[in-house]
Amino acid sequence: MPTIDLEFDRHHIWHPYTSLINPLPTYPVRSANGVYLHLESGEQLIDGMASWWSAIHGYNHPLLNKAVTEQVADMAHVMFGGITHAPAVNLAKALIAMTPEPLDAVFLADSGSIAVEVAIKMAIQYQVARGLPQKYKLATIRNGYHGDTFAAMSVCDPVNGMHELFSGILAQHFFLPSPNIKPEETWQDTELDAARALFAAEHENIAAFILEPCVQGAGGMRFYHPNFLAGIRALCDEYDVLLIADEIATGFGRTGKLFACEHANISPDILCLGKALTGGYMTLAATLTTRDVATTIGHGPGGGLLMHGPTFMGNPLACAVATASLALIQRGDWRAQIPVIESQLKAELLPLKEHESVVDVRVFGAIGVIEMAEPIHVAAAQQLFVQRGIWIRPFGRLLYIMPPYCIRANELSALTAAMTAYVNQVSSS
Ligand SMILES: *Cc1c(COP(=O)(O)O)cnc(C)c1O
């Protein structure tokens, strides 16, 4: 019997993007193991979401558990102002070693949104330090998602990100159309025309260009051609604009490369990491930048201080489990797992394109997306999925999965079969 007070939950606790007067049903989870969520009701669900991109190694992983347990015996947390500790230093070393060479300074943030805030501060402080205070705007592409805090929200898609609601307080930035050419399509250089025009006209006002490399996540689950990313990198170089790569969703193997920037053979000036950083165990994110940016900020006004410092910065528990997760990444099982997941997703999902109720089906690495013609009724779809023993959380017209990398073929088939069942149900109604 559920021991959890669901009535209390409904009336008093906001869940992500919910209303307290008209809450959607929630499913009480008691524990999680491998790719399974165990509900209070006794049912178990195969998790297609990896808890929003983060639980890449599966739940209750012995090596990650060990890292947390050993660390908690030493210290759960100490302030990072004026204090340092091995978990933070070990993690920063591992991050610098595994990211592209020019990145060699690390800010440990407490969530993805904050990593983006810090990236934006770095870019603006860098331009101010160079005597270019008018270079404070950001440029980005539509359909992006960079987080829910105000600066991050200001570069999210203006429509999906509900900019209208906050228009009085939100900073105004430059938005390019989101790229249309898909990774598998033939590249056409005209795709960069709008970007060329923007850089030529506004570069003196732009501190940085921010985007998600190759895969746009929560702003639309869109995949675009790596040449677009390479083209933006080249324009940033030509026009003296920093490039911020938000790899919070794409980092750590999800797209088939360690970082999605590798699809375009580029390296950003500032890199945001989060989500899978701790293997889904704790909230932690990181913003990395180059020696040049770090040094320039250091020579800037106000004593050259980077103006950020959260209370839980560098939390030792989170750093310890992140370092253990990166060790698992370095072991490299994902290099074999992702292509296997990708080809199975293609085989089992792409045929659904034939349905009239389906606008598009796309697969990139271990990400599978079905874009429906009509909005998905989330509560009804979830009920169907839970009955079938799987966990998928649709949003808008998108039914998508990004399972833990350790998922087995039969478990993945259960996910794609449920997605197929949903499409069939819509098609026949
Ligand atoms: C999830 C996400 C964020 C925000 O991270 P939070 O930890 O939810 O604050 C930022 N950028 C991208 C690309 C994301 O997917």
UniProtKB/TrEMBL annotation:
Could you tell me what reaction this enzyme catalyses?
Answer: (8S)-8-amino-7-oxononanoate + S-adenosyl-L-methionine = S-adenosyl-4-methylsulfanyl-2-oxobutanoate + (7R,8S)-7,8-diammoniononanoate
Record keywords, A-Z = Aminotransferase, Biotin biosynthesis, Cytoplasm, Pyridoxal phosphate, S-adenosyl-L-methionine, Transferase
Report the superkingdom from the record: Bacteria
List the transmembrane segments.
none
- Keyword Heme in the entry? The reply is no
Chain positions with N6-(pyridoxal phosphate)lysine modification: 275
Chief location bin: cytoplasm
Q: In which pathway does it act?
A: Cofactor biosynthesis; biotin biosynthesis; 7,8-diaminononanoate from 8-amino-7-oxononanoate (SAM route): step 1/1
Q: Which residues are involved in binding pyridoxal 5'-phosphate?
A: 112-113, 246, 310-311
Which GO biological-process labels does this protein carry?
biotin biosynthetic process
What does the annotation say about its assembly with partners? Homodimer.
Its family? Belongs to the class-III pyridoxal-phosphate-dependent aminotransferase family. BioA subfamily.
Name of the protein this chain belongs to? Adenosylmethionine-8-amino-7-oxononanoate aminotransferase
Q: Which organism is it from?
A: Aliidiomarina haloalkalitolerans
Q: Which gene encodes it?
A: bioA
